[in-house]
Amino acid sequence: QVQLVESGGGLVQAGGSLRLTCAASGRTFSSSAMGWFRQAPGKERDVVAAISWSGGSTYYADSVKGRFTISRDNAKNTVYLQMNSLKPEDTAVYYCAARRMTILTTRRYEYDYWGQGTQVTVSS
Question: Cα(92)–Cα(119) distance, rounded to whole angstroms?
Answer without folding.
Answer: 6
